[in-house]
Amino acid sequence: MEPKKIKYLLNKRFRSFYPVVIDIETAGFNYNTDALLEIAAITLKMDESGWLKKEKTFHYHIKPFIGSVLNETSIKFNKIDPFNPLRGAISEKNALINILKEVKKKIKLEKCKKGIIVAHNSIFDLNFFMSAIKRNSIKKNPFHTFVTFDTATLSGLAIGQTVLSKACKKIGIYFDNKKAHSALYDALKTANLFCKIVNKWKKLGGWPIKKNK
Asked: Which runs of E-coded beta strand occur in 105-153?
C-alpha cells in the first residue's frame, strides 16, 4: 500500500519565503568596488509528499562593470579570464533582470511573500547580489535584503562540517574539488546540500511540527 501523500505548500515551510540558491564568483572581496564575474541561481520546488528538490537553473558569465576592480589574486584563484570573448558574458543588469523575473513568477505561483537567498557563507553572496542590484538601479527586488539561509551554518549544525566540499561528502553528495569555484558547480552542490539537510530533518520527524493536543 502506497503511503498517503500530503500536499505541503512551500509557502508554509519557510515562513512564506521562497528559497533560491545563489552562487557568485567575483574579482575580489569588496562588494562595492570589485567586479562580479559569474552568477548562478537555482529555484526549488516541493513535491506532494513534502520533499524539497531542485527545479530551474540559471547561469550567466558577467562583464565587469565600468570602473570595477579586478584583483589578480582572486582571478588566479577562480581561474576566470574576465575578457575572454568565449565566455559569452552579459551585463550585470541583464543577468539580474533575467533571474529576478523568474523568481518573481515563482513567488507568485507558490503564494510566497519574498524570495530568500540560500548560499554557502551566504553573507558574501548576499552583499555582492544586493550591491549589484543597487548599482544597476533595479527598483523591484523580490528578495529579503538581509535574511538568508546559510548552508555553512546549517551543515555545521546537521553534520558537523562547514566547508562546502566536506559537508557534501559527509552527507553523501559527490564533490569534485577540481570543478569548485565555478558559480554553476558550487550552486548545484549547495542546492543539493540544502535539499538534503531540509529533507533529512523532515525524515527524522522534525517537519511538519506536530501540535501538542
From this structure: 114-119, 143-150
Cα–Cα distance between 53 and 63 in angstroms, integer?
Answer: 31
Residue 135: pLDDT band (50, 70, 90) is: very high
Side chain identity at residue 180, one-letter code? A
Rounded CA gap, 213 and 210, in Å? 9
Q: How far is CA 177 from the centre of its chain?
A: 19
120 is catalytic: no
Catalytic option among 59, 61, 144, 181: 181
- Which helix (H) or strand (E) segment holds residue 168: the answer is helix 164-171
DSSP 203: H
Q: Are 22 and 125 in contact (CB under 8 A)?
A: yes
Name the band, by pLDDT with cuts 50, 70 and 90, for residue 107. Answer: very high
Give yes or no for residue 2 having a pLDDT over 50.
no
Nearest partner of 62 among 122, 131, 114, judged by Cα: 131
pLDDT the model gives residue 18: 98
C-alpha cell at 29: 572581496
Round to the nearest angstrom and report the end-to-end CA distance of the chain: 29
